TrEMBL record:
The lineage of its organism: Bacteria, Bacillati, Actinomycetota, Actinomycetes, Kitasatosporales. Residues 725-741 have a biased composition (Gly residues). Residues 362-634 form the Penicillin-binding protein transpeptidase domain. The keyword Metal-binding does not apply. This is Transglycosylase domain-containing protein. It comes from Streptomyces solicathayae.
């Protein structure tokens, strides 16, 4: 009977002997020696493990987590993302030196024994008894592989990882049972291949290919003998033998491996001596993981792709299912992003807005007819440093965007105009559009309960020279507030609700637009640039709305293709209505508030927008084959863009046509360079007959530059109640509201 210490426990040597004795027992089982039932020997005692025969025979090996590569539409790499940096390679693509080195140092009798090395166990018991502690283990490569499978299956769950690595007899016996199965089913070469692909080599590198790239910037097949020996030496203790942080320890360990290879005749002593004398020759490459490393400022698009994957049921029934696939990785995701459009967007942002400006800008481009997102960028880079952010200003909160989107101002007016035309109002519709007027006493809604102006609220145009009557064309070019409020009084709120629903227009938090004249006329509600660009693409696509899409194809590590979400297209309005809106918005860039945004040599249309106190400025426009939205403002909605410097240029007042407009123009010009121009279907909209009393008064305002406020700073002397403009929860983050022109 083993002697006990005064404290009642076994000595360290006795504990080690008992521990390894179980492995001897299991080895005997493997050898086919008849032994009493496991339970009779105490294996099933409380705190150890169930009977050996009761352990499930099939080891479930989860697919190894690998890198996921996100590509643009042209096949260029946007970013590499992974939970574990691993690239699985077959044994023939691993240097023979590496194969010999890992066997030499971890399990030199690997090709001679089965799942357990009885000779190694006895040797370890003897060494441990001599040293008075646990100086040498006896796990074979097969057993180590099984343990790594358990660790891999545990993922990032700390409790599961602890269970997979706990030093207990129970775990060792389970490992052995599965090791027996693995030896029978896989064979030595496959076990070695799997081991080298699953093992952790430190520095975030899992598997030999990633380790080779991390430390030497080369493929695993190209490792020489000293490089292979260094990597093999790391496995025992990745932190202790880390060559990046302790080169001296790494060299000592490498040389131990080299000598072991020489002793086993894997290499000659002369080769070992030469290799020992060589320096480490590290050529370390930094880990390049995540959207923060994305090229061409596409970090926000990269993150959007991830959010789409995690939220779309096409990739799995539950978010947990989808997250498991994402974390497993090994995917190649080809996206819709155009390298030309993305680079043009980022260059335009760089030219017009500085990273450290008080305000930020976002650009989103969508292809009409397909819903493909071609560009998504912003002036503050993706990151965690000063003047950086991980909030994607282009998308809704659910996809990583701002809490509520940003008030869009007069860029909303085309939706109202489309609703009116769908209701049968002609594009020559005239309203009196006085300089100042009270809001209508009531306006019909879909519910049957009208919106009521119970506070006697009024509104006015930008300046006193804006006095009707106006027809729709001129009212759109000048963005006349009173005209559009009279229009919504005429048709009611319900037609606008109907058409914005068909256009996918929701608030940035994903909820429906509030049913109020300010929200459905003057754009007081927070909406994302992606939503606006996609809705305007419907006009370019002659009335057919297509949901935005970012992913074209996904291939797994084994070449299987996954289903991806498709753009869903539906009719939102008649072709005639869309063509009419195109004609109206052509006027905005030809002779209205958006002249500075107008493109040369191709049909284009768009609308400016600026909100209360100039906290947001927009330009949303399109050509027949590209739609783009530009937002400029403060994410916190705390900056009034008056007497402000943006991109090194001083602005007394920021207009939708003056800052966002030029950004849009340059981005679209670059994105469309070399592409066919395309043409809108023209609609003849007669100019309104002017009243003789208007003779001599130029009611047009080239570029909007000579009009204070241009498309913005509405109602400077009026404060509206929250229910009129949708309330604080319907605006940008912490903002003071929308409205505006």
């Amino acid at each position: 009977m083993a002697k006990k210490r005064s404290g009642g426990g076994l000595t360290g040597t006795q504990q080690a002997a008992k521990f390894l004795g179980v492995s001897v027992l299991a080895g005997a089982v493997l050898a086919g020696i008849a032994l009493p039932a496991a339970g009779a020997l105490g294996l099933a005692a409380k705190g150890t493990v169930e009977g050996f025969d009761e352990i499930p025979a099939n080891l479930k090996t989860p697919p190894l987590s690998q890198r996921t590569t996100i590509l643009n539409a042209d096949g260029g790499r946007i970013a590499t993302v992974y939970s574990r940096d691993r690239t699985v390679v077959p044994l023939e693509k691993i240097s023979p030196y590496m194969q010999k080195a890992i066997v030499a140092i971890e399990d030199s009798r690997f090709y001679e024994h089965g799942a357990i090395d009885l000779k190694g166990v006895l040797r370890a018991i003897n060494r441990n008894a001599q040293s008075g502690g646990v100086a040498q283990g006896a796990s074979t490569l097969t057993q180590q592989y099984v343990k790594n499978v358990f660790v891999e299956e545990a993922g990032d769950d700390p409790d599961k990882v602890a269970q997979a690595t706990q030093q207990t007899i129970g775990r060792k016996v389970r490992e052995l049972k599965y090791a027996i199965q693995v030896e029978e089913e896989l064979g030595k070469k496959k076990i070695l291949e799997n081991y080298l692909n699953i093992t952790f080599f430190g520095q975030q590198a899992y598997g030999i290919e990633s380790a080779s790239q991390r430390y030497f910037s080369k493929h695993a097949k190209d490792l020489d003998v000293e490089e292979a020996a260094m990597l093999a030496g790391i496995v025992q203790s990745p932190s202790r033998y880390d060559p990046v942080n302790d080169a001296q320890e790494a060299v000592k360990r490498r040389n131990v491996v080299l000598q072991r290879m020489a002793d086993l005749k894997d290499i000659s002593q002369a080769e070992a001596d030469r290799a020992k004398a060589s320096p480490l020759k590290l050529k370390v490459s930094k880990p390049k993981n995540g959207c923060i490393t994305a090229a061409s400022g596409a970090g926000f698009f990269c993150d959007y792709v991830k959010q789409v994957f995690l939220s779309d049921p096409v990739f799995g029934k539950t978010r947990e299912d989808r997250a498991k696939i994402w974390n497993q990785g090994g995917l190649t995701i080809r996206t819709t992003l155009s390298s030309q459009a993305q680079e043009a967007a980022q260059q335009s942002l760089k030219d017009h807005v500085n990273q450290d400006d008080k305000v930020a800008a976002a650009v989103t481009m969508v292809e009409p007819g397909t819903g493909k997102i071609l560009a998504m960028g912003q002036s503050k880079p993706y990151g965690f440093g000063e003047h950086e952010t991980t909030i994607n200003y282009s998308v809704n909160k659910k996809q990583g965007g701002s809490n509520f989107g940003f008030p869009v101002g007069s860029t909303f007016k085309p939706f109202l105009a489309a609703a009116a035309i769908e209701q049968g109002r002609p594009p020559t519709q005239v309203y009196s559009a006085p300089y100042e007027m009270p809001y209508p006493a009531s306006i019909p809604t879909c519910s049957g309960s009208p919106w009521v102006n119970d506070g006697g609220y009024k509104l006015e145009n930008e300046n006193e020279t804006e006095v009707g009557p106006y027809a729709l064309k001129e009212a759109m070019e000048k963005s006349v507030n009173t005209y559009f409020v009279q229009m919504i009084q005429d048709i009611g709120l319900c037609p606008v609700v109907d058409i914005t629903d068909k256009l996918g227009v929701v608030q940035g938090n994903g909820t429906k637009l509030p049913v109020s004249p300010s929200a459905l006329t003057l754009g007081s509600t927070g909406i994302s640039p992606l939503t606006m660009a996609t809705a305007y693409a419907t006009f370019a696509n002659r009335g057919t709305y297509c949901t935005p899409t970012a992913i074209q194809a996904i291939k797994t590590a084994d070449g299987k293709r996954l289903d991806v979400p498709k753009s869903e297209c539906s009719k939102a309005m008649t072709e005639r209505t869309a063509d009419t809106i195109n004609e109206l918005l052509r006027g905005v860039v030809d002779s209205g508030t958006g002249q500075q945004a107008g493109l040369s040599g191709r049909d284009n249309a768009g609308k400016t927008g600026t909100t209360d106190e100039r906290k947001n400025a927009w330009f949303v426009g399109y050509t027949p084959n590209l739609s783009g939205a530009v937002w400029v403002g403060s994410a916190s909605q705390q900056v009034s863009m008056e007497q402000i410097t943006i991109g090194g240029v001083y602005h007394d007042k920021v207009f939708g046509g003056r800052v966002p407009g030029p950004i849009w123009k340059d981005a679209m010009t670059g994105a469309l360079d070399g592409l066919p121009a395309g043409q809108f279907v023209r609609v003849n909209i007669p100019d309104a007959q002017k009243d003789p009393k208007d003779k001599g008064r130029d009611r047009r305002r080239p570029g909007g530059d000579n009009k204070p406020g241009d498309d913005g700073d509405i109602f400077p002397d009026i404060t509206f109640p929250p229910d009129l403009i949708g309330g604080g929860t319907h605006r940008g983050q912490g903002g003071n509201g929308g409205g505006g022109r």
